[in-house]
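User: My instructor asked us to take a sequence, write out its structure as tokens, and then describe one feature of it. I'm not sure where to start. Here is the sequence I was given:
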Amino acid sequence: MIILREITKIYKTGDIELRALSGINLTVEDGEFVAIMGPSGSGKSTMMNILGCLDTATSGEFWLDDLNINYAREDELADIRNRKIGFVFQSFNLLSRTTALENVELPMLYHGIGAWERQIRATNALNAVGLSARLHHKPNELSGGQQQRVAIARSLVNNPVIIMADEPTGNLDSKSSIEVMNIFQQLNAMGITIVLVTHEPDIAQYSKRIIHFKDGIIAQDETVKNRSFAEGEPLKLDLNWRTEVASK
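Assistant: Let's start with the prediction itself. The structure tokens for your sequence are:
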């Protein structure tokens, strides 16, 4: 799914250079659930931006789902983000004046999908994360955990091959955090690759593998022992529907 070879990222301000990443080599297999950890300034956010095609490396080689990202133009990167990657952020990134359904439909607008199919797919995705009774609620009418579930539903509608989650439980209480991790674990069990950035060790324990960043390098790469498992409602996600979406 992901292959990184000698990835370096250098930010320049005038004559000053800041090396955020130094020669990163990393492979993430299809169907893995990986957590990225590290202190502020360790390079983990830069790494996530590169993996999500939101930023490009200064040097090195990056393959995502058999695509060489190194030479992609800006419009090609935007297309890759829309077709292959689902994003979930700490701040939810929902439009405040639109309903949950309309928020989930948004990625499909950029994909050129018609109104009827957008509504069907968005409804199915919201049903999958247990929000069938909240389709027409706006963000300020939803709890933090419900808003994050809307964001997860939005990440699913274009049938991504990978979900990038950046501190997805950072603004949630313990109960809501467990509900969100339950959803991620179920999605991963269905075969979706998940890469999650977190500063919370207890949240990282829900993943299968933890990669620790320090000073722009990978300091440790470990398989999770004594993995945590989140309890919660089973997802109502129809994999046949997702397959149909991918074929269109």
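For the description part of your assignment, you could build on this observation: The chain has eight helices and ten strands. Try explaining in your own words what that tells you about the chain.
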